[in-house]
Amino acid sequence: MSASGKPEQRSSSLHWPYPREVAHRGGGTLAPENTLAGLRCGLAHGFRGVEFDAMLAQDGVPVLMHDPLFGRTIRAAGGVRDYPARALMALDAGSWLGEQFRGEPVCTLLQAMQFCAGHGIWMNIEIKPADPDVAAETGRAVAAAAWAFFKDSYAAGADMAGLPLFSSFSFDALRAAQEEAPAIARGWLTDKIEDGWLAQLQALEAVALHTNQRHLNAAQAAAVKQAGYGLFCYTVNEPARAREIRQWGVDGFCTDRLDLFPQTHV
To answer: Which pLDDT score is estimated for 11?
Structure first.
């Protein structure tokens, strides 16, 4: 425990002050993704770090959502851009996973930040534009909302380990977030590490590279670490794979299998 009484954040790297094991979309496969129920599930399993997706509703309000079109997690017509946030919050985002979650509503970014800040949970906020045409708009809106919520913490010199990090597959969205809230850390998110990755990190003034563990190899991991960046992976659901990539220097990962990664350090 730290002097403040909060759990210490352990890291394998000076370039990654954040939790090493992060709950994917809130509660992994144990609760409806991108909902308050998911965040409560992650917390109940001892996770002090969470990853979730932020997308814009029709009225420009950021909400937690992975799919731009409904059908997988929400039984309704259309998609996220067809509804203002208030209407989205009236939709059922839980019963697809089980009757015990029936009526669990769509969660706004503000609600998620309030929950996480209130429980000492670090956030990896993935900026996920519903369409490439709204990438910059999404980046700006998510960044503006996060900055409005956390600006006093930054002004007070809060520990970076407790402050959020943006990530995105969209360079335009992350660039817009950089311009809107430059103090909030950024991680460039890419399925595969390909030529030009370092230039992209530098252009975004990012602190970390986030990538799919399925395509990562030891040489790539070493190159990222030697360049001085944090290295984060998605989505690691097997302890043996977690041990392997940690040996390569991977700093952290998100997981759907909260039950296989007991948070004994919390």
So the answer is: 40
